[in-house]
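Pasting as-is:
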Amino acid sequence: MSKQQPAHPGIIHVEPLFLPENVIKALTIDNLIFGLDNDELKVLLVKRHEPGHDNLWALPGGWIRYDENLRDAAARLLEEWTGVKNLYLEQLKAFGRIDRFPNERVVTIAYYALVSAENYQDVIALSAGDVHWASVNNLPELIYDHAEILSYGIKFLRHQVCHQPIGFNLLPEKFTLLQLQALYEAILNTTLDKPNFRRKIMKMDLLTPCNEKQQGVPHRAANLYRFDPEVYKQLSESGFSFEI
């Protein structure tokens, strides 16, 4: 514990328990890792163990090395926390409020990542003890300004998913229209009209029929579809606008 007087009253100075070599001390990355579990949007949280903040939950992140780009650092940290490579990853925003970290000026760059249904089961294997998938509608107390970061990230995701087809990154490669609607309902936290949603989606011509049906379901098997990114790219170049 440092004897240095706090720059802000009521904030205790806490030295990092472990600071790796070759990292930028005043710059970190925090990742918002979203996944879909039983039609519920969840975010990956980790438990922190440090003086003054023991057993509080946090967004998974870490320090940025001097020899790596921001996106490379975010991808590295994502793999370290989830064990999964090549996730959908986008920079969200920089958060640099003076008092966001105890008596240290630390700016964090927030990224958000989307874990597909196939990878969700791999990541969930970590979800014991100090790593946990939490519903965005039932969050525990978070460390520092991580509640603010997460709130901003959820609002941003809800906006993006209505204007870009990023939601498909949360689905399995082959999915039903019901699964697609459930995804949008989970992210937007609302109920959508089934006929209108299906009419709008199919009118976009972004889905390719797999000519297959669901297997092993207790109800009538539904048709499976794939999202076609090449068609979306071609349509976008011709002025197509994705809107949900």
